[in-house]
Inverse folding.
């Protein structure tokens, strides 16, 4: 009996030591540092700044600040995307642009536990976008900038270029959100059903059927969104191709070096906070095929060929409907919802081409 207690004691001590080592390693890799460069005209900054009375966060990467400025409007909304730039080192968009990753008010590195959640509205974020754009134009001495919305961030960026086209050379929608109608849900459902049938995954098929209701013939409407999105990841059409939400999103957040430990914790807190804001309610019941059918500036859409979080078929359809001085739809091979990081070579070449098209 004493021997058993002794073994248990040593096991617990070993477990405690392992936990301490893992915590130390976590703190060591969480330096909070971002990419830096040796080029004389380069820039690498991470900071929080007040915009319209609220803290906003910024990551700026550029190998040459004379290059055009590209404002990346983060996904979610409420999700900072610099974590993917930290994780996927082959993405070198800063060769051709001064890339500005923007954390909206009280999210990401700008999170504050005393945030005024009621102040997170669509109108306020559009006003913030305008002020951020004006700041970047003035700071980098640019007449205009490029703006790229990613996923949920396309809802903000698209509406802003409709309001203030004079500020932008072009609008780029990466993983463009088009509608939350049953058209989207049906495309997602059919994709997942095909994949799970091919895998003979009866459990996933059952979960899928329990997440929808039939409407108007063969169409479906999602009734459990978070379960639906989890299944999209299982089917290979989520944030990162063939990666679950845990391996594709959570692990990169936990293991990245661009955030400190406290910033990683606040990142998660900010994401959760953004789910319960006026904004989250305002960004429902939309269909840009009806509400925004024309833009006054060149407009380009980039989607992954396996993106069924924001189904690429809808994006291509929207591009065909939209009236713009110049427009294009690009489907990125091998990518799901995050083509800039999943296939950086092909995506960055397209973004370089867009710069040439716009003579910038």
């Amino acid at each position: 009996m004493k021997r058993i207690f002794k073994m248990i004691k040593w096991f617990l001590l070993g477990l405690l030591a392992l936990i301490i080592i893992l915590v130390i390693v976590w703190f060591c890799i969480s330096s909070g540092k971002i990419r830096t460069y040796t080029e004389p005209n380069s820039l690498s900054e991470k900071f929080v700044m007040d915009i319209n009375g609220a803290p906003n966060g910024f990551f700026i990467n550029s190998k040459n600040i004379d290059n055009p400025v590209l404002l990346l409007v983060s996904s979610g909304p409420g999700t900072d995307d610099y974590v993917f730039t930290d994780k996927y080192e082959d993405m070198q968009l800063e060769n051709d642009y001064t890339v500005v990753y923007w954390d909206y008010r009280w999210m990401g590195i700008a999170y504050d536990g005393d945030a005024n959640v009621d102040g997170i509205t669509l109108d306020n974020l559009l006003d913030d976008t305008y002020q951020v754009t004006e700041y970047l134009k003035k700071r980098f001495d640019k007449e205009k900038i490029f703006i790229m919305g990613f996923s949920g961030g396309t809802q903000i960026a698209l509406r802003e270029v409709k309001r203030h086209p004079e500020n932008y050379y072009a609008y780029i929608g990466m993983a463009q959100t088009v509608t939350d109608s049953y058209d989207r849900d049906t495309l997602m459902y059919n994709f997942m059903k095909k994949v799970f049938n091919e895998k003979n995954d009866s459990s996933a098929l059952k979960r899928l059927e329990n997440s929808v209701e039939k409407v108007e013939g063969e169409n479906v409407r999602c009734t459990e969104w978070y379960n639906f999105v989890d299944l999209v990841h299982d089917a290979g059409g989520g944030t990162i191709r063939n990666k679950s939400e845990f391996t594709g999103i959570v692990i990169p957040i936990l293991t990245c070096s661009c955030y400190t430990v406290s910033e990683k914790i606040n990142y998660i807190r900010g994401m959760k906070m953004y789910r319960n804001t006026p904004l989250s309610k305002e960004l429902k019941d939309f269909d840009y095929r009806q509400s925004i059918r024309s833009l006054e500036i060149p407009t380009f859409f980039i989607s992954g060929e396996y993106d069924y979080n924001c189904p690429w078929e809808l994006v291509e359809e929207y591009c065909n409907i939209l009236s713009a001085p110049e427009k294009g739809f690009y489907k990125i091979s091998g990518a799901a919802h995050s083509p800039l990081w999943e296939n950086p070579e092909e995506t960055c070449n397209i973004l370089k081409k867009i710069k040439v098209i716009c003579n910038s």
Remarks:
- Residues 17-28 have pLDDT under 50 and may be disordered.
- Strands lie at 43-51, 54-62, 69-73, 98-103, 145-150, 168-174, 212-215, 219-222, 299-304, 327-332.
